[in-house]
Amino acid sequence: MDHETQVELLDEILGLRRERSAYLDETVTHSPVNRYLDEQRFSDERAQIFRKQPLLIAHSSELVEDGGFLSRDICGAPILLTRDRSGEAHAFFNVCRHRGARLVEAEEGCKHRFSCPYHAWTWDNTGRLIAIPHKDQGFPDLDKGDYGLKRIALKESQGWLWVRLDGDGNDDEALSNHIAELADDLNWLQMGDLTVHAVHERVWNCNWKIVVEGGLESYHFRVAHAKTIGALFHDNLSTYRAFGPHIRSILARTSVDDLVEIPRKQWRIRDHANVLYTLFPNSAWLVQSDHVVLIQFAPETVSQTRIRCVTLRPKQNEALTENQQSYWDKNHALTVKTLAEDFELGEKIQAGLDLGVNDVLTFGRYEGALDLFNRTVDEHLRASGPA
Ligand code: FES
Ligand SMILES: [Fe+2]
User: How many domains does the chain have?
Assistant: First the structure.
């Protein structure tokens, strides 16, 4: 984001402050509760969005140099990410090419070859089949070249790894287009210079869209986050813009009021607002003044979502001092605690959805980003046609 845009966005917030107004959309909208309850719809979302759309899968620093691997499940699809000696990242289905066993059980580690736990067929970390026990007798004519691990489209760019399950190989136009929308902001954020500090992961009992929606308004901050971060933010003061299917929200901190005393050329948006990127379909970057939190919402069932919160701090060559360690630990703990407030509310919402109390959820004019997100989901379902 160039400096001019940062000033423009901060000016917009200060304008709203002067008018004592929230950022308003045209109309109140409604979201049918079936969106969060219907099994058929959930399976359509899996098939038509999660398998077809680019998905942010990890930060580059999670896949360590020379032999790092990660295994992840996305919507029931087991994925294996590897990094080879040359530093190149690869993505495969974590499925053995012999009789289909899960090839790698560990969630992460460092390995140059992967041996199947069933009959020990073995692949290197570029996906090449390198060994079959008793091959000559059992599989005399088998060409190992035909049995490489099944590759998934992958793009590594500016510190992030993206995959597309239905994409084949590495040269995937859909992946590049998906990221193109974010190019300016990615250049600004330089998130390749970050490293993972800490991770928190657990399954929450609510539909994935309920928890994504929870990040798209600041109407709840003063109420739901009264015990954590509420006082740091102005009440219901945020704006948003769409970038293709993604949404960038500016969540104003109370310190925006100090800007009237500071020359515009010194304004830096990260010091006075959290910048939240809601990345379609199921991830978010929460950009704060000195670090970024990655949040991934992986749907497991229509009413269960595995949520991973990753605190990313600046890389440094030397080890963290005790003070630095404690600073980042506290930061991570506050993020986890604050987000738990959102996710607990998400669970309560889900639990009440099928009681017939609400046929629709009602989004006010300052909750317009929630409607935009749902329209984007609906458009992708429609564009793909019936399952
Ligand atoms: S299923 Fe993997 S080696 Fe047989
Ligand atoms: Fe929240």
Answer: 2
pLDDT digits (tens, 9 = 90+) for 227-239: 998 899 999 999 9
Measured in angstroms, how far is the CA atom of residue 101 from the centroid of ligand 1? 6
User: Residues 191, 148: one domain?
Assistant: no
Instruction: Classify residue 176: in a domain, yes or no.
Output: no
pLDDT at 387 over 60: no
Proportion of the chain above pLDDT 70, given as a percent? 98
* Distance in Å, CA 221 to ligand 2 centroid: 6
Which residue(s) pair with 246 in the sheet?
243
- The 3-class SS string of 291-352 reads CEEEEEEEEEECCEEEEEEEEEEECCCCCCCHHHHHHHHHHHHHHHHHHHHHHHHHHHHHHH
Which protein residues are within 6 Å of ligand 1, measured from CB?
Answer: 96, 98-99, 101, 116, 118-121
Where a domain ends, among 165, 200, 227? 165
Structure token digits, residue 10: 């901060």
What are 142-162's pLDDT values in tens digits?
999 999 999 999 999 999 999
Residue 145 lies in a domain: yes
- Interatomic CA distance for residues 61 and 326, integer angstroms: 21
Pairing label, strands 113-115, 108-110: unpaired
Q: What is the pLDDT of residues 44-60, one digit of tens each?
A: 999 999 999 999 999 99
> Cα(95) to centroid of ligand 1, in Å?
9
The answer, yes or no, to whether residue 386 has pLDDT greater than 60, is no
pLDDT of residue 168: 67
Pick from 136, 165, 194: which residue ends a domain? 165
Question: What is the atom index within ligand 1 of the atom nearest the CA of 97?
Answer: 2
pTM (2 d.p.):
0.94
Decide if pLDDT at 95 tops 80: yes
Question: Do 37 and 74 reside in the same domain of the chain?
Answer: no
Q: Where are the alpha helices (DSSP H) in the chain?
A: 3-19, 39-45, 135-138, 173-180, 183-189, 208-214, 221-224, 269-272, 322-352, 368-384
Domain enclosing residue 73, as ranges: 55-165
